[in-house]
Amino acid sequence: MKLEIRDVAHTFGDRVALDGVSFEVVPGVLTGLLGPNGAGKTTLMRVMLGVLAPLRGEVRYDGRPVRPEDRRHWGYMPQERGLYPGMPAGEQVVYFARLHGLARTEAEHKARGLLEELGMADRWRDRTDKLSGGLQQRLQLATALVHEPDVIVLDEPFAGLDPVAVASLSESLRQRARQGCSVVFSSHQLDLVQDLCEDITMIDQGRTVLAGEVATLRAESGDRQLRLHVETTSREWLGRFPDVSVVSDQADELRLAVPRGTDPLEVLDAARASGPVVDFGLDLPTLSQLFLAAAGPQPRKSMKVA
Amino acid sequence: MGSWWRGTALVFQRATVETLRSRAFRILTGVLLLMSLGAVLVPQVLAQETKTYTVATIGAAPPELVSALDASGRAGEFEVEYVTGATRDEVRTAVREGDATVALAGDTLYASSTSAGSFPAVVAQAVVSVRVARQLAEAGLTPEQVGSLQGIRPPTQVSVGDLHNEARGAVGLAMGLVLNLALLYAGGTIATAVATEKSTRISEVLLAVLRPGQILVGTVLAVGVITLVELLVLGAPLAVAARIRSDFALPAVATTDIALAVVWFLLGFAVYGFLFAAAGALVDKVTEVNTVVQPISGMLLAGYLLSFFFIVMEDEAHGFWSVFLSMFPLSAPVAMPLRWASGEVPVYQQAVAMALTAATAVGLVVLASTVYRRALLVTGHRVRIREVMGGAV
Known about the structure:
The complex is a heterodimer.
Chain A: E1 3-12, E2 15-25, E3 30-34, H1 41-48, E4 56-61, E5 64-65, H2 68-71, E6 74-77, H3 89-99, H4 104-117, H5 133-145, E7 151-154, H6 163-178, E8 182-187, E9 199-204, E10 207-213, H7 214-219, E11 224-230, E12 245-250, E13 253-258, H8 264-274, E14 277-283, H9 287-295
Chain B: H1 2-21, H2 23-46, E1 51-58, H3 63-76, E2 78-85, H4 88-96, E3 102-105, E4 108-111, H5 119-138, H6 143-150, H7 166-199, H8 202-209, H9 212-244, H10 254-280, H11 289-313, H12 320-327, H13 332-342, H14 347-376, H15 385-389
Parallel strand pairs in B: 1-2, 1-3
Antiparallel strand pairs in B: 3-4
Helix pairs in contact in B: 1-9, 2-9, 3-5, 5-6, 7-9, 7-10, 7-11, 7-13, 9-10, 10-11, 10-13, 10-14, 11-12, 11-13, 12-13
């Protein structure tokens, strides 16, 4: 069932946190809510979960305004650890399952199955604060997934994880999406999640700056770069393409910016005509580059480029 | 509503189990139990030796008298030994020199002026009983009839305390102190629990599936039950000892006072529990809990100290300030039990004070829920009340 965020606005006193953000989360598609720190991602997620009431706009689910009982079938993983430090791991998962409406027996059954899947079956009785950071992250994920939610909302799930843990979490999310879940997660590490996102919504200073399918956004971007290793020093052939500019020209690599309207294959053919081309490639812009192009030139220290 | 209670019950259950499991609870319970058992057992240990009295008689003591004194000894937890002398002077000397507690010579009973206590009265009663039985038998009554007459017991003696007596006042004072400490302990526990949930962002997950009121009520109820258990641990050995041991008694009217104190504890808990919870939501780090609860703890302590001053020290249970403190909802939970134990309080004042406190508690639940819900989402700095009571958050 589709989740729709429509024109959501929210303020904290005089400070505008969200200013008319809209996007959709479609079942089976991994959707990234991206932007630098302070962009309004967490506030938007809190609005989606009903923790905050929006000043304007609405969250719709299955074609109607979302109801509190709908959220019992959602799973939420906050940015920081939302776990009871002194509680045994298994008990913790069972507790959150029961909060989402599962009976005790069913909750225990599903908790055991999920911890098994996440490689934590032998940690059932361990106190949460005795687990490593990575295991706590997995446990946090388990509390969000144990009731087999229809919608999964994760706030900065990859923050602080090593590459192995990122890969493992990514696979878990892909699996849930394949099963038909609506999965939305936020991240300020744009390029880290570039390969995971299928749809994205980029927000900055509370406003949507870019939204759509990642592959389409990258392909349609005017920031494409053609990378060539041409065994000739002559660059006269470039004269046929006045819109193409040289990004860098080094001994083993010539990098060209190919704007929308110019076919990269024609540029490649011209290069081959001038001399042997031993290597080439078309680089689409990264999510960071897309963000910077969409949001403007001002520096954004809080945004990480992996 | 069913769903509301289900969620609240889950919060209550988790908070209860977590607290029972905590090291702090185990240590506190152990200390309270030791204190309570100590209060009961230490005096008993100190008075462990069975008292032994010695009766000096001229010639062998009559068997009927020995039998009667043995029976009294079993009931009164003392033993009786017998020494004999040949003459009145000998048995009297035995008493004077400390070899006997009492001496029986004809119709005279010599008693030690220093160590006899109530034993001479017991011996005198036994002598009278033996002689009456003998005369009744001589008058023709059967042994059964004599036994029946001897079986007549005096009415059960019940001490009736003065409405204004020192023992009762002391109980009231102790109750006030215990209530105050219990509320401070429970308040600190509640504030810490809320602060922990906020600082670990658990509250965010909870708020996605529960209403703030559910989390608040579940947590406060859990700590309330735990605190009552602690009070039970503290009070149970004393109450049991008072029931089963003749040498250990609470003041005559203390039972009513205790029952009233429990009611006021619950009312006080309802008022202060939610205030402490709201205070816990204001922190940014758990270490700030002590700072944010200070105004509430101070209010509670001030209520007790002022009540102690006006009701106990100034002895003005009916004075303006005493009445005011026992009616004002924020001080009534500690002031009213104190005033009640210090003298007579009109029933209507009790009822009005309880109604006012209960109404205040309801109002504070609403207020605390608002503060709690708004403050939970403000992080990065300690929240000021103005921040959450002002514009929308």
